[in-house]
Amino acid sequence: MTVAPPTARKTSGRAIVRARRRKAVAKVWATYRRSPQGMVGLVVLVVIVVLALAAPLLSSSKGLDVTYTSKNPQFAHPSLKFLFGTDDLGRSVWTLFIWGARISLFVGLAATIIAVGLGAGVGVIAGYAGGRTEAVLMRITEFFLVIPFIPFAVVLASVLHRSLTNIILVIGITSWPGTARLIRAQVLSVKERLYVDRSRALGAGHWHLVSRHILPNVMPLIFANLTLTVPIAILSESTLSFLGLGDPLRISWGVILQNAFQSDAVSLHAWWYYLAPGLGIIFVALAFTMCGRALEEVLDPRLKDI
Amino acid sequence: MSDAPLLELKDLSVTYRTRSGDAPVVRGVNLELRGARTLGLAGESGCGKTTLANAILRLLPPSTRVEGQVLLEGEDVYTMPPGRLRAVRWSEMAVIFQGALHSLNPVQKINKQIGEAIDLHHAAPRGATRQRVGELLEQVGLPARRGNEYPHQLSGGQRQRVMIAMALACDPAVLIADEPTTALDVMVQAQVLDLLQQLQRERNLAVLFITHDLSVLTSVCERLAVMYAGRIVEEGPSDVVFESPQHPYTRALAAAFPTIGDPTSRMRPSGLEGDPPDPQHLPTGCPFHLRCDVAEEQCRTLDVGLAPAGPDRLAACVKVGSPAAAGNP
Amino acid sequence: MSLRFVGRKVVGSILSLIAVIIFNFFLFRIVKSDPVGSLLRGRNVPPDVKARLRHQFGLDKSKIDQFWLYMRQTARGNLGVSIQSGRPVTEDIGNSLWPTIWLVGLSTVLSTIIGLLMGIKSAWQRNSWFDRLSTGVSMFTYATPDFFLGILLLAFFAFTLKLLPTGGIESPTGSTGGISHLIDQAKHLALPCLTLTIGYMGEYAIVMRSSLLEVMGEDFLKVARARGLRDALVRRRHAVPNAMLPTVTLVTLNLGFVLSGAIAVETVFSWPGLGQLTETAVHNQDFPLLQGLFLIFTAAVILANLVSDLLYGYLDPRVRVG
C-alpha cells in the first residue's frame, strides 16, 4: 500500500470542497428536474433564446429595413409567406419578432445583472460590515426604493438621449434596492451561524470569510432572485419602449407594440401585429418566473408544499 | 366521582399519509384517565405523544387516518357530529400545548382570546365575561390588568399561565397538558408545575400530563405510562415505575434525567444512544431492541405486547417477570 | 399606537421627500446645463429671447443661487411654469390629477378585494381546482404587461364588440348632465379600470395565499379550533387577520407605484390623467413640468410608504415598539 505524498494531501482539501460543491449542484439539478413547472419554464426559455440567437439564420436583418420592404403588402394577414403577417410598413412581423427578441432578452438580462450585481454587492457589504457602513448603505437603498421607474426613465430619456444603455441603466438603478434588502437579510442570518465565529477565531481575514463562507450560502438566493428579476426587467423595458423612451434605432418587443399601437393596428384589426410581441413578452416572463419558483422550491424544500 | 374512566383511549392508532408512504405514528394505544386523577405520559420527541394529544380532541390534519376510539364519558369523539364536538371541546376537555407564544394569536389581546372561549360556551353570564377573565388570570397568579396586553408583551412563564387560565375558562373535567413546561427555565418550570398541581387539586381536574422528562411526572402524576415508537411500553403507579422500571427504555429514561433535589442522581451516566425509529421504517420484532442494553436474540423477531409486570403494572418486554427485568443481567 | 412611533415615521418621510427634492434638482442638470439651449436647439430664436427665457427660468444665476431659488420655490409650493402651456406646473398637474386618482383608486379597491378573496379561498382549499386555476391565472396576469392587456381588451370590447368606447374620459358629444353623464363616464372608465384591476389582482392573490398558508401552519389556529370554534370562524377571526398584514402593506406600498405605473395604460385609453400629461411633457421637452411630475410621482410613493408603515403598526402590535 503506497502512502500518499504530503503535497497531495495539501491540495486535496480544496479538491474535496470543489467536489462537494459539484455534487451539491448536481443534486440541485436532479431535484429541479422533478419540478414540472421548472422544466416547462426551462424548455420555453431555451426555445426562445435559440430563436433569438438564430435570428440571422432564420430571417435576414434586411427585413427590418423599410427600404427593402416597401414592396410588401401592408398589414397582411399571417400566411405561408409571412408567418406572422406584416406591419404597417410591410415588414414581416416574424422578422420583427425574432430580432426584437434579441434586444428584449438582452436588455432584460443586462439590466438584471446590473441590478442583482449592485444589489447583492451592497447587501453583502452592508450585512457583513454592519455598524455605520450598514446604516449608510441602507439609507441609500431606502432612498432608491422610493424612486418609481417610469418617471425616472422619462426624466432620464428627456435629459439624456434615448439609448439602450440608458434603458438598461434606468431599470438597473430602480431594481437593485429590492435585491440589496433581500441579500442583506440573508447575510445577517448567515453571520449568526457559529462557524463564521469559529473561522474568525482561527484568524481568518475578511476576504476569506466572505468568499468561503458567506458567498456560498448567499449564492443560491442571489441566483433565485436573478431569475425572478429578469421578468421584471423585461416587463419594464417593454413598458418604457411602448412609451417611446426606448432606443429609436433598435427593435424590441416593446417597440413593436408601440409601433402597432401608433399605426392604429388595433382599430384596423391587425391583431397579429400586436399579439406576437405581447405573447412573446408574456411567455418569456412566465418562463423565467416558473424557473425562479422551481429554483426557490429546490433551495427551500418547505416551499414545495405551499 | 364515578369509577368508570372519564377519558378512555381504545386501541387508538394514527397514521400519517405522506407522499412517500404511510407513517404509523401511534399504534394501538390503550389508556384510561379517571376523574380527578393524574396520568403522565412520557417518551422522547418523535415517539408519537404529541400526535396522541392532538388526536384526543380530533385536532389532526385531514391527511391522517385514525383508528380506534377516544371515549369521553363513553362517547366516541370520532363519531360525534361536528356541533357536539365543538360543544365538547374546551367545555369538557381542554389542551395546553408547548410553546405558548405560538399558541396565542399575536395580534389579539389576551382578554379577547380567553373571552372568546367563555362566550362560545356560555361559561359566564352575559356581560360578565371580562370579570371572569380577570378572575381566571388571578387564579393563575397574574394580575387581571395583564389581560389587556398582547402575547409578546409577556414572558414565557406568564404566557404559559395565560394558556392555563384559558384552558380552565370553561371549567373542563379533563385537562391535557402537552409539554407545558419544557420551553421554560428551571425556576419557572417549578412554579408552573406547582400551579398545575394546585389547580388540579382545587378543581378536581383529570390531567393527562405529557412530557419527556420522567422526573417531572413522578412528582405531579399518580400513574405513569411510557411511550415508545407509537406504543405504550410500560404503565403503572408513577413512583413504582420510576423506582423499579420493568422496561429497559423506562430505565434509560429514568437515568437520563436527574431528580431535582437529589444530588447523587447527577453523577449517574445519562443519555441513550441512537435515535427513536422512523415510523416509516420500524425495526423488526421489538422496536426498541436496537438500542436496548439487555436485548436478546428473540427480541429481533418477537414483537412483545403489554403484559402484567406486577400489581397494577404493565410492561412490554420479554424479560418482564424475571429478575433480569430489574436490570440485573 | 404611540405618538413617538408615528412621529418617527412622519419625520422619516419628510426627510425622504427633501432628499428627493434635492435629487430632482440635480437630475435635470446632470448633462444639460442649459435646458433652454437644448430646448430651442435647431430653432431660429434670437439670442435675446433665449436670454429672456433663461432669466425667466432663473438659469442665468449661478448654480448655488439656482439651487436655493429652487428649494425656496418648492417649499412654497411653486413648482415653476410649464413651458408648453404657460400655466403654473401645479395647476397643470392639478387638472390632470383627478382622472388618474379615480382610475387608480377604483381599480386598487377592486383588485384588492378580488385578489384577497381569491387568495383566501386558494389557501383554504389548497391544491383544489380553484387553487390551481387561480394561481395559474395570477401568474399569467403577473407576466402580462398591463398596457398589452389594455390593448387586447380595447381590441375586443371596443373594436370588435363595439360595446365600450375607444378612449377618453367622456364622449366628445358631451351628454347632458345627470344619469346619462354618469353612465357615459362609467363606460369610459370601464376598460382602463378593468385592465388595471386584472393586472394587479393576481399579485395580491398570490401574496395573500402564501401568507395565509404560513399562518395556517401556526399552532394558535389549532388551539382556536380546540376551543370549539367553527372552521369558518377560525379562518375569519384568527387566520385571515394575521395573514392580512403582509398583504395590506403590499397593497398600500403598491399604490404609490401604481400611480406612475398607470401611465402606460392611460396612454392606451387616451385617459386624460397624469399619464397623458407626462407624454406631452416628454414630447415638448417641458422640463419644469417633468420636474414637477417626477416630484409628484415620487412623493406618492413616499406617502404610500408612510401610510403602509403606519397601517402595519396599527394592525400588528408587535411592531409598535417605542
SSE ordering of chain A: HHHHHHHHHHHH
Could you name the ranges of chain B where pLDDT drops below 50 across 5 or more consecutive residues? 265-270, 323-329
* Helix content percent band of chain A: over 70%
Helicity range of chain B: 25-40%
Query: Which series of helices and strands of chain B comes N to C?
Result: EEEHEEHEHHHHEHEHEEHHEE
The percentage of residues in β strands of chain B lies in 15-25%
SS summary, helix count of chain B: 10
- Helix/sheet category of chain A: mainly alpha
How can the largest sheet of chain A be summarized? none
Spans of chain A with pLDDT under 50 lasting ≥5 residues?
302-306
Name the beta content range of chain A: under 5%
Oligomer description: heterotrimer
Terminus-to-terminus distance of chain A: 54 Å
State the helix count of chain A: 12
Biggest interface, and residues per chain? A-C, 42 and 52 residues
Structure in a nutshell:
The complex is a heterotrimer of chains A (306), B (329) and C (322). Chain B is built from ten helices and twelve strands.
Properties at a glance:
heterotrimer, A: 306 residues, mainly alpha, 12 helices, elongated, disordered C terminus, B: 329 residues, alpha/beta, eight-stranded mixed beta sheet, four-stranded antiparallel beta sheet, 10 helices, 12 strands, globular
Give an account of the 3D structure.
The complex is a heterotrimer of chains A (306), B (329) and C (322). Chain A contains twelve helices and no strands. Helices cover 75% and strands 0% of the residues of chain A. By secondary structure, chain A is mostly helical. By secondary structure, chain B is of the alpha/beta class. In chain B, a hairpin with a 2-residue loop joins strand 1 and strand 2. In chain B, the strands form two sheets. In chain B, strands 6-7-8-3-9-10-12-11 form an eight-stranded mixed sheet, sandwiched between helices. A four-stranded antiparallel sheet of chain B has the order 2-1-4-5, with helices on one face. Chain B is built from ten helices and twelve strands. Classes of the chains: A mainly alpha (306), B alpha/beta (329), C mainly alpha (322). The interface between A and C is large, with 42 and 52 residues.
